[in-house]
Amino acid sequence: RLMQIEKDYDRLLWAWKGWHDECGNKIRPVYLPYIDLLNKNVKENGYHDLAQYWIKGYGIGNVTKFESIIDQLLKNIMPLYEQLHAYVRGRLCSKYENRFDCNGPIPAHILGNMWAQTWHDRLDDVIPYPDAPLINITKVLI
């Protein structure tokens, strides 16, 4: 929860680095055998490997075809993602007064999530028009 609510650059770095140093590196010796066990299990259940098992719900049995589809989707959205990333990076660079390279990657520890997977906890820091009401586009999307 600290990563979601904390805004101080140094405290975020301390928490992120501490967690990764204490957990991330130490779990590797346990994680790799775990993946081997998962692969063994899915093979015993008729799948080539864990990747094939994971994609079964998408109706595409071929991992290579699935990867090709994902690659094309990423290629299609990459221009928008790059613009969004640059905008967020610029806003965060201003907020943190150039504490990181404003032309490089956004440091993971300032994105509000231990794995930098989601950015919504930094919405207040990057929203372009903070006084405007948020728009709910759910009805348009369904």
UniProtKB/TrEMBL annotation:
InterPro entries: Peptidase_M2 (IPR001548)
GO terms (BP aspect): proteolysis
EC class of the enzyme, as a word: hydrolase
Cofactor(s) the protein requires to work: Zn(2+)
GO cellular component, one term: plasma membrane
MF terms (GO), sorted A to Z: carboxypeptidase activity; metal ion binding; metallopeptidase activity; peptidyl-dipeptidase activity
Co-factor note (free text): Binds 1 zinc ion per subunit.
Enzyme Commission number(s): 3.4.-.-
Keywords: Carboxypeptidase, Disulfide bond, Glycoprotein, Hydrolase, Metal-binding, Metalloprotease, Protease, Signal, Zinc
Record-listed chloride binding positions: Y58
Family affiliation: Belongs to the peptidase M2 family.
Record-given protein name: Angiotensin-converting enzyme
